[in-house]
Amino acid sequence: MYHCGPTVYDHAHIGNFRAFVFADILRRYFEFRGYRVTQVMNITDVGHMTTDADEGEDKLEVAAKRERKDPYSIARFYEASFFEDIDALRIKRAHHYPRATEHIPEMIALIERLLEKGYAYKAADGVYFDVTKFEGYGKLSGNTVERLMAGARVAVNPNKRNPYDFALWKFDPKHLMQWDAPWGRGFPGWHIECSAMSMKYLGETFDIHTGGEDGIFPHHECEIAQSEAATGKPFVRFWLHVRFLLVDGQKMSKSLGNFYTVKDILNKGFSGRVLRYALMSTHYRKNLNFTFEGLEAAKAAIERMENFVLSMQDVAGTSDDPAVDEALKKAEDDFVEAMDDDIEISAALAAVFEMIRAVNRTNPSQKQAQKAIKLMHRFDEVLGVLDVERKKEVPEEVLELVRKRQEARKAKDYATADAIRQQVQKLGYLIEDTPTGPRVKPLSD
Length: 445
Fold this sequence. Notes:
It is a single chain. The chain is of the alpha/beta class. It folds into 3 domains: 2-242, HUPs (Rossmann fold); 262-383, Isoleucyl-tRNA Synthetase, Domain 1, CATH 1.10.730.10; 396-442. Helix content is 48%, strand content 12%. It contains 15 helices and 13 strands. Strand 1 (2-3), helix 1 (14-32) and strand 2 form a beta-alpha-beta unit. The chain starts with a strand and ends with a strand.
């Protein structure tokens, strides 16, 4: 799987991280189901224009002017910030993070193939892809050449054959980042980068490509066109696009004062795992409305899961309750069914909380409680939000004493029951009698 990663000209905002958290959930779930995953996320450190098309300034150069530094130092600084944020959000590191600036030879080779096959042409200001030569243009976004031409509103670049031809390579003597190529010195277009890097690490056809919905057109449409034109093969089997994040029902904007980075949220006292839960808890193909009330709800949800694990660690009952096994099986089945259905995370989380409710109404044995704990940690292999240390398991010697004490209590032999309690205490454990049966935990708790 390949994921559109950050353009490292500034700190990524929480809307970006909604897509990155989703990519992590997707990867984790495939691994949960036993698949071997190769995950690639690019680092864009050249060629991404401020317009997301061919015009305007390179975002890295804008940042370089703003901070009076060279674009390479800008890129490395914000790349480091990105990795700090993904670690805070418990996002697993991808297997590869290719930087655009380190894959120029692969881009040049891909452009050469497109020129040789007649899909690309050299113009005065760069090398362009001719969209009219690729019959499948528009199959992802619906923006076919015919529809685009009928409603053409783009400024006409006299160097292009067609208004919607896109740049594979740009000539600009003022650009701070330049490389030699057979057709002239310059720098790559944004779209060619992802095609070259994804195919290097995943092959000419791979399984899944994700990104934000704003990447569908033109970025992903252009990726498909140039990749399939060059190889003659399908580029990506499945595209998964994450919808926009709203803040208090509005588009996130610095002018509205509702623009947040991960660091902004951490500085307000929320943990990375709370933000992770808030960002992942709505289905990826629905808009997520981010609020601070939502963060508080995420915090409460995580605490509820952790408290369940802690309560199960204290269970020392000896008699199995059939209702527990039924609840655990139903939860696992429902979780898998929900996640298999296009990563329906809301239903998967509902399955987890229904299990908690169901088990809390039962009288589990210590063995069943351990099964419940293991299942919660199994779910968390996907969710990635729990922070509960596994307490050491109660020794069988202590559990056997607890069973004998229960037998003594049933026989109303309270002297023996008290003696066993003291014996257990000398071994470092405390027995608590509850309405649902005895619970045992280390004295240090």
